[in-house]
Amino acid sequence: DTVRYEAESATLSAGGTIDSNHVGFSGTGFANATNAAGSYVEWTVNAAAAGQATLEFGYANGTTAARPVDIAVNGTVVASGVTFPGTGAWTTWSAVSRTANLVAGSNTIRVTATTADGPANLDYLDVTLP
Ligand code: GCU
């Protein structure tokens, strides 16, 4: 089944904010991490059993430049340079998915910007486990 983890319950690197000024998001807001390489959003998610999960990140990117990130699970990068393409407007939301192996119990999922633009605005992480 799929469990949604809202960005407003995630941890942001210094300077990041939970904003609500661009409509269409899930929950009460979205994560606006700073425009800097290394800025991140980290969720803590629970897995009932170890196995491969689908991670779906809801996001908006109102620029024309993709915003790449590295995705780390429990401190290890499992996907590098994952692009979050422009969505046309900050109020237009889309999603990017990747699979990753989780351990049973608590897992950290961290999305870290690899360019000076920082990450896209991130709305949620949906975790689907078999
Ligand atoms: C704009 C937009 C922000 C966004 C930022 C960015 O300021 O309003 O929501 O985070 O651009 O470039 O990341």
Ligand types: alpha-D-glucopyranuronic acid
Strand content: over 45%
Q: What is the radius of gyration computed over CA atoms, rounded to a whole number of angstroms? A: 13 Å
Second CATH tier, the architecture: Sandwich
- Order of neighbouring strands in the sheet with most strands: 2-5-10-7-8
Give helix % range: under 10%
What is the makeup of the main sheet? 5 strands, antiparallel
CATH superfamily: Galactose-binding domain-like
List the helices and strands and how they pair.
Elements: E1 2-6, E2 11-12, E3 17-19, E4 30-32, E5 40-47, E6 51-60, E7 69-73, E8 76-82, E9 94-102, E10 105-113, E11 121-128
The chain binds alpha-D-glucopyranuronic acid.
Key structural traits:
130 residues, mainly beta, Jelly Rolls, 5-stranded antiparallel sheet, 4-stranded antiparallel sheet, 0% helix, binds alpha-D-glucopyranuronic acid
Any overview of this molecule?
This protein is an all-beta fold. It has a single domain, classed as Galactose-binding domain-like (Jelly Rolls, Sandwich). The protein has strands at 2-6, 11-12, 17-19, 30-32, 40-47, 51-60, 69-73, 76-82, 94-102, 105-113, 121-128. It has a 5-stranded antiparallel β-sheet with strand order 2-5-10-7-8, with no helix packed on it. The model has no long low-confidence stretch (mean pLDDT 98). Alpha-D-glucopyranuronic acid is lined by residues 19, 22, 32, 35, 90, 118, 121.
